[in-house]
């Protein structure tokens, strides 16, 4: 178990769709432990495996006093109601932009025993669920911005010291 270093915007792992978890062994248990340790810090609500450099469909969350994880998550329900909500990301630190998100979301996946898990919620929970599944699909919240706002955001990103370049 360890708090892992984060990957930042520009790292290719963040734009690559994650592979499903197919083996439920000690290496996946270690990944889950690392995801839980890494998300369990002040100011963090969710963390997807690609954000620590692992291309597997797994994320952890810390919401409303509850810490948990989901393997192979899929969004199975979104409310028709949406809103623009300021959003940030551990992989795009210090930048916040308004993103349109459903006000309610349901995610289904499995746990370490390959048993079904469902996480649902509204408000920040719904936002977090959508945000983390986006990561697993190779999307960043910046991809959901309007074209004009995206240009401005990318300009700001390129000026940051953490911007990962090759």
TrEMBL record:
Keywords: Hydrolase, Iron, Metal-binding, Protein biosynthesis. Binds 1 Fe(2+) ion. Transmembrane segments: none annotated. It is an enzyme of class 3 (hydrolase). The keyword Signal does not apply. Its EC number is 3.5.1.88. It catalyses: N-terminal N-formyl-L-methionyl-[peptide] + H2O = N-terminal L-methionyl-[peptide] + formate. Pfam families: Pep_deformylase (PF01327). The active site is at residue 132. Fe cation binds at residues 89, 131, 135. Its cofactor is Fe(2+). GO terms for molecular function: peptide deformylase activity. PANTHER family: PEPTIDE DEFORMYLASE, PEPTIDE DEFORMYLASE, MITOCHONDRIAL. Removes the formyl group from the N-terminal Met of newly synthesized proteins. Requires at least a dipeptide for an efficient rate of reaction. N-terminal L-methionine is a prerequisite for activity but the enzyme has broad specificity at other positions. NCBIfam families: pept_deformyl, PRK00150.1-3. Belongs to the polypeptide deformylase family. This is Peptide deformylase. The lineage of its organism: Bacteria, Bacillati, Actinomycetota, Actinomycetes, Pseudonocardiales.
